[in-house]
Structure formats: structure tokens, C-alpha cells
Specification:
The structure is a single chain. The protein has about 260 residues and is α/β, with parallel strands linked by helices. It has a single domain, classed as Uracil-DNA glycosylase-like domain (Uracil-DNA Glycosylase, subunit E, 3-Layer(aba) Sandwich), CATH 3.40.470. The chain is about 35% helix and about 10% strand. It is built from eleven helices and six strands. A six-stranded mixed beta sheet has the order 1-3-2-4-6-5. Helix 2 runs antiparallel to helix 6. The N terminus is likely disordered.
Length: about 260
């Protein structure tokens, strides 16, 4: 797969690599993307039916990111990801491996709730993925856990389902970042099938070991990346880069103030 990189990725490559942005600069850029997302109308139906945009929540410097499918009714009301029963299970599983929600960053493929909690449409995934790719580029996680089919298929660029892939890590290039991608069952799906809770717990137990590994080598930015992987790992694949960040954040929607989604900023 041969895909173009963002201007920011290309500027980072070659023989004249600039000084990487500081944590503060990355946080400010992430805030700009957040404000841009608050006024997004890329998907007219979702923009018309949402209560609020659910951008994400957690540590802006997290080594570990979780990516789910889309906000549900509770998330749409509160403006925060994973706040219902699935979120409680996520918090429990994090606690069992010595982590808390504030140690990680949690977000979804879609930033708006699909009406009736229907599956995301392909056009909606395409329209919204620039926000997710910007989050990956600016937070710079070392491990990304995809929760369920939609996030896994999008970030792998492959239609293979979660049942075959869960608990198997691999190095992938997401935008211009090489990460360890680790597919997991979605906590909501596990709640519907109690036996899968034990499977999810077993897969979670491997996360500390993945975080202890060296960070994947980052690709050369001026060419499509080729990241060295082990003999038992698949070659990394790139996915489309995010749109350039807005120079100035768009104004927030009129009405009640947006919830504090970027908790540890």
C-alpha cells in the first residue's frame, strides 16, 4: 500500500530533520484539533443528531491509547468516552494491570454518536479519521489497543475480524507513527458474551509486557515507511494521513460549555 504522508511528516524526514515538537507544543496542537472537532460538520446527519462531540479523554503524553468504535448514548450526553458499563469494565481491567484511566488516552473512531447506536457508515469513518490520525501523531503512543472490529479494520487497513486477531500484537504505521497495534474485544461486546470477559482479561494481562518493549523504530518520513519487524510479524501498513491542523481553533458551539474532554492537559 502506497499512501502519501502529511506535510508535517515529510518535514520530519530527510537530512534536515527539525527539532521535534515539545510536549507543550504537541498538547497545544491537540487542543487546536479538539476545538476544530467541536464544530465539525463533515457528516451532516451526525452533526445534526449529536448532543456533543466526544473527542477523547486522558493523558496527552500516554504511551498507551485505546480506540473504540463510536460514542453511545451515555457518552453523547456526557461528552466523554467509555462512561457506561463498558467503561466500567475498561476501568476494572486497567486497574488489574496497575493502570488507571488517567494513565492512558481513550477515544473512538467516530467522534459523534451514530443515531440509534447503529454501525458507523464507511463515509463517516473516512470523514472522521483525520481526527484520530492527528491524535496518534500528537500523543505519540507506543501501543494502541483497538477495541472491536471497526477500529481494528481501520487502523490495520485490512478486513480481518477481531475474533481472529485479538491478543496478537504487530507493528503498524498509523499516519506517520510506527506503533504496536494490539487488537482486543470491545468491552461492550464482551459484556454481551460473558465468556469473552475472561478472554479480554487474559489479553489485557499482556499489555504491561508490550509497554516494556522498546518503542518501534520510526519510519523515514520522506518515503513510505518500512519498519523493521520480527520474523513472526507482518510488515507494517500505512493509513491515510490526517488533514493539516487548523491555524486557529474554530469557535465552540453556542450553548452549554463543552465537557473537559482533554482531562490531563
Amino acid at each position: 500500500m502506497c499512501l502519501k504522508r502529511s506535510a508535517s511528516c515529510r518535514r520530519a524526514g530527510g537530512y534536515h530533520r527539525p527539532v521535534p515538537p515539545s510536549k507543550d507544543e504537541r498538547r497545544e496542537a491537540l487542543k487546536a484539533v479538539y476545538h476544530q472537532a467541536l464544530g465539525c460538520t463533515n457528516c451532516p446527519q451526525l452533526a445534526a443528531t449529536r448532543t456533543t462531540v466526544v473527542f477523547g479523554n486522558g493523558n496527552a503524553d500516554a504511551d498507551l491509547m485505546f480506540v473504540g468504535e463510536a460514542p453511545g448514548a451515555n457518552e453523547d450526553r456526557q461528552g466523554l468516552p467509555f462512561v457506561g458499563q463498558a467503561g466500567k469494565l475498561l476501568d476494572t481491567l486497567l486497574g488489574e494491570i496497575g493502570l488507571a484511566r488517567g494513565d492512558v488516552f481513550v477515544c473512538n473512531v467516530l467522534k459523534c454518536r451514530p443515531p440509534g447506536n447503529r454501525d458507523p457508515h464507511p463515509a463517516e469513518v473516512e470523514a472522521c479519521q483525520s481526527y484520530l490520525l492527528s491524535q496518534v501523531e500528537l500523543i505519540q503512543p507506543r501501543v494502541i489497543c483497538t477495541l472491536g472490529n471497526f477500529a481494528t479494520k481501520l487502523l490495520r487497513g485490512d478486513p480481518t475480524g477481531i475474533t481472529r486477531l485479538h491478543g496478537r500484537d504487530e507493528v503498524r504505521v498509523i499516519g506517520c507513527r510506527a506503533v504496536r497495534l494490539y487488537p482486543l474485544f470491545h468491552p461492550a461486546a464482551a459484556l454481551y458474551t460473558p465468556a469473552n470477559v475472561d478472554v479480554l482479561r487474559s489479553d489485557f494481562a499482556r499489555i504491561p509486557g508490550l509497554l516494556a518493549l522498546d518503542a518501534p523504530p520510526q519510519p523515514a518520513a520522506e518515503e513510505d515507511a518500512v519498519v523493521p519487524v520480527g520474523a513472526d510479524e507482518e510488515p507494517p501498513r500505512a493509513v491515510p494521513d490526517p488533514a493539516p491542523l487548523a491555524a486557529e481553533p474554530e469557535p465552540e458551539p453556542v450553548g452549554a460549555p463543552a465537557p473537559l474532554q482533554l482531562g490531563l492537559f
